[in-house]
Specification:
With 420 residues, the chain is mainly α. The protein has 17 helices and no strands.
Amino acid sequence: MRAIHPVITTIKKKFSSQFIRNVGWLSISEIIYRVLRLGLVVIIARYLTSYDYGLGAIVMTVREFSITFADIGVGTKIIQAEEEELEQLCDSAYWLNWVVFLSLFVIQSLAAFPIAWFYKSPNLILPIAVSGLAYLIWPLSTIQKNLIQRENRLKVIALTNSSQNIIGSILAVIFAVSGMGVWSLVLPSVLAVPVETLIYYKAHPWRLTRGFTTKNWNSILKFGYNILGVSLLRTLRNNLDYLLVGRFVGINELGLYFFGFNAGLGISLSFINAINSAILPHLCAVRAEFSEFRSSYFRSLKTIWLTIIPFIVLQSSLAPIYVPIVFGQKWEPAIPIVILICLSAIPRPFADAASQLLIAVGKPHLDLYWNVIFTFVFTIAILIGVQWKIIGVAVSVLLVHLVFLPVFTLWATRRVFPKN
């Protein structure tokens, strides 16, 4: 038994350091993205009107919903798959991705018409359709990206994201200064996609080895429907305030709210997204050793507490100072929104970690059940808050997150690691 101890210690150190490295690379990538985005907001805020921001918020919300439907569990299944089934699984998943993304492009293009009617703005039709062009490129390298994640080579993911964000930000500035309005928020994300595809295609040697097949589609979909359900509910919550503000308060007010949201979370979201991306492969890699699995999870929570919370508090406290200086006096009415939305981020990474924990132990259905409950509560809160316009919505977002997400985090943690 004594001989085993050094081996376990070595494994713990390996996975712990690997997790920290992955979080580090993803954090750097996310910080680059947030800094670029902050700089982008600073520049285009001086060239775009609140109406342009409102239109952009609707277009990006539609696109985010469409992308969510692509999350049918392919990536998660590839990360969790046994080695002997991996080759056939990847071939099947490749063709499934093409079917899904082509369908999403057609559906989003057709949906542009009723969406424009709903918001009483024909100017939405073409931007919504054009934003879906990326779906015709992504399937070329999605499997390579999933395999890179499986191999814990998240440095590649980070460098790819950074390259894509730099190119997209440069294009957005050029378009905004050129007076292209809402297209400054739509076109860059489409034009930068080939960069991502090329890097992933070169970074992993996997290539398709057989013709069209539907084998394993059933197992992928059966595994992924819980993942998809959670993703859809999370996307709905992340965008529900935009949808309701735009419809019941107005597109100009939506532009102000959308600006406040993007200026508010800032760099804090960098760490949230980085840890959320790194935690699932990290937990899956050590789940066979229960004690290390448990330790890894709680170390992840500690990392969240020590890194994210200070940034959120700092950013929210400085909002009254940096918003008028950096973005201009016309955005001063958004300062309360910036503060409230920023503070709502405090419990989010802990709940995200708890969700990844449930997925890692093969219980995504529990995560789905929770998300159904939370989405219902969140919807009611937003419908109440919208009566007091955008400030009421921001307060509702803050209260719901501060009250309910800690409850879920504690419940999920106790479910997997019950007290003796």
